Amino acid sequence: MRTGKVMGRDWAEARRADRVRLLAGTLASTLADRETFTFELGSGHGHWLAAYAADRPQEACVGIDLISGRVEKALRKKEKAGLTNVAFLKAEASEFLDALPADARIANTFILYPDPWPKKKHRKNRFVQPESLTALAERSAPDARLHFRTDDEDYHAWTCVAVTGHPRWEILPDEPWPFEQVTFFETRMKARRDVIARLRP
Question: Domain residue spans in the chain?
Answer without folding.
Answer: 4-199
